[in-house]
Amino acid sequence: MNTATFYIIQEGSPQDSTLGWASYVHFLCRHFSAQGAKVYINCDDKIAAEQLAEHFWQQEPNDYLAHNLVGEGPKSGTPVEIGFAGLKPSWNRQLVINMANNAATFANSFAQVVDFVPCEEKAKQLARERYKIYRQAGYQLQTIEIQHPES
């Protein structure tokens, strides 16, 4: 059964910043890749995709995760491929992590979707619309509040 998981970002949490969100996506990619999943990350645009790829390169050696932008990298693909609206993964991917802040949907394109519910109201409304689309497409849905340590 296809699943869609929406992670709820809490206002003021570490994920409520560009760098914190990128770090959380890196954490999720490491988690899913360790389980053998091939991950596709969808960003808003080329600039956001390149910035995320650069963030992945800046990780400590023990946290490094092989990745590439769509159209780059080895022919058989890396565990993580990063793209943006209008592009498709160049290798078979089971899971998409959607970081794009638009109404794009991946219903019926991936067996597993990871999406986010940001704090900003317009982005939150777009996440609700994507949630409805996945529900109508028969995805099993769940929401998870991102837990973060207290300061």
UniProtKB/TrEMBL annotation:
Q: What are this entry's molecular-function GO terms?
A: DNA-directed DNA polymerase activity
Q: Which Pfam families match?
A: DNA_pol3_chi
Q: Which InterPro entries match?
A: DNA_pol3_chi (IPR007459), PolIII_chi_sf (IPR036768)
Keyword GTP-binding carried by entry: no
**Record keywords, A-Z:** Nucleotidyltransferase, Transferase
Q: What is its EC number?
A: 2.7.7.7
Q: What is this protein called?
A: DNA polymerase III subunit chi
